[in-house]
Amino acid sequence: MRQQTDVLVLGGAGVDTIVHVPELPLPFADSYMIRPGIVTRGGQSGDFAALGLHALGLRTHHLDMIGDDHEGDLVRALHRDRGIPLTGFPSPGGTKRAVNLVGPDGRRLSLYDADRARDSDRFDEATVRGLAAEARHAHVVITQPCVFTLPLLREAGLTISTDLHNWDGVDTYHEAFALQADLVFLSTAGLSDPERTMRDIAERGRARTVVATAGAEGAYLLHEGELSHVPAVTPPAPVVDTNGAGDAFASGFLFGRLNGERPDRCALYGTVAGAHACTVPSTRTDSIGREDLLARVAEVETERAGQGVQATGDTA
Hints:
ten-stranded mixed β-sheet, 316 residues, alpha/beta, four-stranded mixed β-sheet
């Protein structure tokens, strides 16, 4: 069968309500006047990954459970307006939603509505198999019920990536994703020993490549047992919001991977895409495009060559 999709994104469709606060953590008070105003927009982890991949020219299809509600309408409109195919199964609990508190420095605290997902939620297996048969790669978000699709995707012969976000290295729910993916992304934020967790994932699971993002410190890349540090890049504008930076990193990395680039260069693509995402206000869903990404990567490589610095990282 002819492949119609470069990346099938599963899960992570939802809505965020953005609340700008004067500082984080937010001190207790009876009330706060919020400026700029409170905004609700479509877009969570899976949506941002799909948007980022699409903006880079990869044929992308998004699959998730979505409610027959206002939040679901926002998600459907987001995909329709960007021209991204979306397959949505009915969600009895409603569309996923969260409240993001965003501080002046761009840091954010996300409050997720845990009542929206049900233990009984499932994707239609025939639909998953059909979409998988037309795809090159699957990026699986850790939302319910995506874990049940992993054997189906493996059976279809797809390579699989996942993002564990701020996993602590212990929670068994995340572990199921970590050990069944070929490429694993996660953040160092919740880890006491990032290298140990990265090596544990590689040793016990299927992943040949594990990437741990570390914010302003860049990222760490473990590939075929060799650990290297990927330097951060300077954002092209002031940092206003870190929400979506990890999804942008994953999109940039996958763009390089699916175009046959080395893992260290894929990581450079990821750091450039992630840095760009930090300059986009949380009320918007803009992603870096292919031409801008490649131009910025070329600039970074030129700058580092002139400084005698490796463009893509050094051995940790």
